[in-house]
Amino acid sequence: MIKKALTCAVLMALTACGTQEVQNNNKNAQTEAKKTSSQIAAVQYPETKKGDVVDSYFETQVADPYRWLEDDMSEETADWVKAQNKVTADYLSQIPYRDELKASLKNLMDYEKVGAPFTEGNYTYFYKNDGLQNQYVVYRQKGDGEAEVFLDPNKFSEEGTTSLAGLSFSKDGSLAAYQISEGGSDWRKVIIIDVESKKQIEETLIDVKFSDISWIGNEGFYYSSYDKPKGSELSAKTDQHKLYFHKLGTAQKDDQLVFGGTDSEKHRYIGGYVTEDDKYLLVSASVSTSGNKLFIKDLTKAKSPLVTILDNTESDTYVLDNIGSKLFLVTNLNAPNKKIVTVDAADPSPEYWEDLIPETKNVLSVSTGGGYIFAKYMVDAISKVKQFDKSGKEIREIELPGVGTARGFSGKDDDATLYYSFTNYKTPGTTFALNASKGESKVYRKSNAKFDSEQYESKQVFYKSKDGTKVPMIITHKKGIELDGSNPTILYAYGGFNVSLTPRFSPTRAAWLEQGGIYAVANLRGGGEYGKEWHKAGTQLQKQNVFDDFISAAEFLIDKKYTSSPKLAVNGGSNGGLLVGAVMTQRPELFKVALPAVGVLDMLRYHTFTAGAGWAYDYGTAEQSKEMFNYLKAYSPVHNVKPGVQYPATMVTTGDHDDRVVPAHSFKFAAELQSKQAGTNPTLIRIETNAGHGAGTPTSKTIEQYADIYGFTLYNMGVQKL
Fold first, then answer.
1. Is 17 helix (H, G, I), strand (E, B) or coil?
2. What tens digit of pLDDT does each residue of 476-486 get?
3. Confidence of residue 399 (pLDDT cuts 50, 70, 90)
4. Domains of the chain with bracketed CATH
5. Could you give the residue numbers annotated as active site?
6. How far is residue 264 from each of residues 244, 260, 261, 621, measured CA to CA in Å?
7. Which of 62, 198, 255, 498 has the most other CB atoms within 10 Å of its CB?
8. What's the alpha-carbon Rg for the chain, to the nearest Å?
């Protein structure tokens, strides 16, 4: 199976922050529980100086008084971070049931978690976390022998902040290259080891970013990176990706540049992938997070050229698999919900494509394994899976155990057994083993999560947005709750970059449910739940649709008395952090608590940092046109905080090593809120040190972060005790 080129700048998920050993002093908790949110002294925010920077856009002057906070290398910014963290820590320490929340989270996360097995060479590998380990450990076993540790990322760093960010084996399984991320950074190092001895065999590769590792035989592998930026490694612009080939036994400085690096044409995201039979190299090149060019090279012929399959970025297309020269491609070219086509590698351009599995009304994602194609459809964000042979004949529909999300169904062509997981918001994931030829599934491993799903219900509703568009939302809570408007509720969404939010269990969200909270997830426009058109309906000059969808979700929950404004929190990360920032500045009275995490919050300057210019497909840029500038300025959270307005109680979260959505976004937004907030609602910022955008966050930091988020949320909703 060929992996789809990852558009790694697509923003996803919450960051996770902070940790300390959980101690639960019941006596103190009972005493302190008598406090209410009004009894915490008014927050005294650190002084944040204002500069005199002014930018001009189409003859409009825009002040940027906190521009100095963009300098992540300055002592002044570091001092500001320390001062803000002290204020936030002092506030959070006064929440009486904070330790109870930590204990609840620790209990819910403390169970053995084991991933599906996969075979490489002479070994079967799997990932496992004993319960509260900061990072998953990679184990291996030979046949029915005893499993042994292969890689233990918990030993990479003392605090567990260096994580395993990728693992790739040579074709015969005798060599492995693994990536590590330090402090949550997107910049990676690659370490190459001999599998039998587990010893490193050559110098570590450095400065690798937004890259998979794709081997050709045991000769070497392809990887991608940018030139190291001048100035700040955290925030400096990186907009020219390059594909390299690393030949084993040679120095990284001698690696062959395969694609990219020309002044005439820049691509921000480039990936190279080798077919399972080592016959072809596929190269995907993108200027933004949507749309890619596609090229192919015959590796069996010396000095063969890169042949163009697609010379434009008007579609998302990748090669799924091949049988000899017959290529199987997944594309949304003239098929917004995607389809599978075939073509001969000798003439691979679109005019020669033939439909194998045509487009349907539901969005398609695809995997291969066991010699079959598995078509995974989203039906209102719910999984439906069909199995096809490689002639395009439907073999069967895979019977799933319920309504939720199924992931997996991938492997090598000769794998007789494939694995998949099934989960939803109230059901911990179960791994199933599928006999690929017979279509029979059996439970491979049940979850050991300490959560009684039978006590909860999760249902999908549909509501109308401002313009009448029907939007799905899944609401999860304890059975038997009263719909009287009194239930603490977190409304979560993303709404961008063609990302689909499908139901999945999370022990951190289970902790919220256990406290009697409602958790609602809305599938907004801008996402991928209904294909390319749904995505485009939430981009650029249509971005307000996303915010309207989210506001309408909140109004639905209030109208149906699930909750009320004094008991409603909004939460989202990355692009979802933008979402929260936009709706809380547009409708501040609608929410009691706002939780923007690692958010894109300065819409006039987001594209000047790291790979941010690649997000322009979704956002547009302030320099693009006067119309686009005015549109961005009208919703940019940093530019729409107004004096004299009472904004929701807000806790902005970010990581000081986030080199995807740089923390300056959050710094500037928090400074604006603290400067202009009216009323008594606190506006805090929680800046996790030695942490990035969220990937690889240690378990201990996750526990600490969510205890703080839930404590802050409940406390400001007036909950006196748990």
1. coil
2. 999 999 999 99
3. very high
4. 29-107+451-716 (3.40.50.1820), 112-261+270-274 (2.130.10.120)
5. 574, 693
6. 19, 10, 9, 21
7. 498
8. 25
